[in-house]
Design brief:
This protein is an alpha/beta fold and 225 residues long. Helix content is 33%, strand content 19%. Strands 3, 4, 7, 8, 9, 10 and 11 form a seven-stranded parallel beta sheet that branches. It binds tricarbonodiimidic diamide (TIU).
Length: 225
C-alpha cells in the first residue's frame, strides 16, 4: 500500500509524516492497577503521580483522534483467571509478598475481568475500539494485534501509555521489527522513574530513529488541526 504522507509532525530525529487512513493511536496499558493510588503499582512502592501526568495529554490526543474518526486501539497487561498463561518465572519475579493473581487492592492483581486490570475511566475504550489483552510486556507477543492492524491496513502507530521503558519500549521494538513506523509523544508516555523516562525516549530516537520518532502531543494536535 502506498503511504500518502498528508500530515507532518515536527519530531526527533526528523519530521514524522503520516497518513491518517493507515495510522492508529495505540494506548498501552493505561490500567487502574498501574495508575491509580491504592493500586498494584503503588503497592509495590512506586510513585503513581509520575504516571498520572500522562493522563491529560492522552485524553486530548484521544479526543482529537476520535473526533476525526481515526483508528484507536488499547492494550491491557494481564492474565487468565486460572493463570494458565502466566509464566512461572513472571509470577515469582521480585520475590514480593503479593504477586500476580493474588488478591490486591482492586481485585486479583493483573487478572482479566478484575477492576484493577481495567483501563482508567478517563481513557475508557469505546465499543468500536479493539482492546488487546496481552500476557507480556510487548503488545505483539501472544496476541492478535498484528492481525488486527494488517486487516485494517494500519502501517503507522502513534504509541502512548505506560511504562515508557517497559511495555511501551517493548511494543515499539516489536512493531519496528514487523515494519511499522512508530511515533511516541513524550508527554503521553510515562515511567515511575524519571531517568528511565528520559533514556526510554532517547533509545527510541537515537541513531536516526533506530526504533521510531519522538515528539509531543501539542505538536501532533497542531499538525492535525
Ligand atoms: N505496562 C507495563 O509497563 N507493565 C509493567 O509491569 N511496567 C512496569 O514498569 N513495571
Amino acid at each position: 500500500m502506498k503511504i500518502l504522507r498528508t500530515v507532518t509532525v515536527p519530531a526527533e530525529p526528523y519530521s514524522f509524516e503520516f497518513d491518517p487512513a493507515i495510522c492508529a493511536l495505540l494506548l498501552i496499558d493505561m490500567q487502574r492497577d498501574f495508575l491509580e493510588p491504592g493500586g498494584f503499582g503503588e503497592m509495590l512502592g512506586n510513585d503513581v503521580s509520575q504516571l498520572r501526568r500522562a493522563i491529560e495529554p492522552n485524553k486530548k490526543l484521544l479526543a482529537a483522534w476520535r473526533a476525526r474518526g481515526w483508528q484507536v486501539l488499547h492494550t491491557r497487561e494481564g492474565h487468565r483467571p486460572d493463570l494458565s498463561d502466566l509464566p512461572p518465572a513472571k509470577k515469582i519475579r521480585g520475590h514480593g509478598k503479593t504477586c500476580i493473581g493474588d488478591e490486591g487492592p482492586m481485585g486479583r492483581i493483573l487478572i482479566r475481568g478484575e477492576a484493577g486490570h481495567d483501563i482508567i475511566s478517563e481513557l475508557y475504550p469505546l465499543p468500536s475500539e479493539p482492546v488487546i489483552d496481552k500476557p507480556g510486556k510487548g503488545a505483539f507477543f501472544a496476541t492478535d494485534l498484528h492481525a488486527i492492524l494488517q486487516n485494517r491496513g494500519i502501517k503507522q502507530l502513534i504509541v502512548t501509555g505506560v511504562t515508557t521503558e517497559v511495555c511501551v519500549n517493548t511494543t515499539i521494538r516489536e512493531a519496528n521489527d514487523r515494519g511499522y513506523d512508530c511515533l511516541v509523544p513524550s508527554d503521553c508516555v510515562a515511567s515511575y522513574f524519571p531517568e528511565f523516562q528520559e533514556m526510554g525516549l532517547r533509545m527510541i530516537k537515537a541513531q536516526g530513529g533506530i526504533f521510531g520518532w519522538v515528539s509531543d502531543s501539542e505538536k501532533i494536535l497542531t499538525a492535525i488541526s
